Amino acid sequence: xxxxxxxxEQLARVxxxxxxxxxxxxxxQRQKLGxxxxxxxxxxxxxxxxxxxxxxxxxxLAVMGIGMRIMATPEGAVADGSGPEGMPHG
Length: 90
Description:
The structure is a single chain. Helices cover 46% and strands 0% of the residues. It has 90 residues and is an all-alpha fold. It has a domain at 1-45.
């Protein structure tokens, strides 16, 4: 990583620790939190919206070396994992 970027990230961690421990006076804390909030909002002035992660398909998992078994559902089972009476819940 670039030395300048490393220094900026380290300084950000130091400031975050100071903010979290109450080491700054009220005015400094307000200013620092305001700058962080402005950076979070970026140029658009709106927070970024994260898209939910897509589930990997069986083929994608296989490429990563992750095996997958599709098990038969016991008759009478419902989506919440409960089964017919007398069957253990899973």
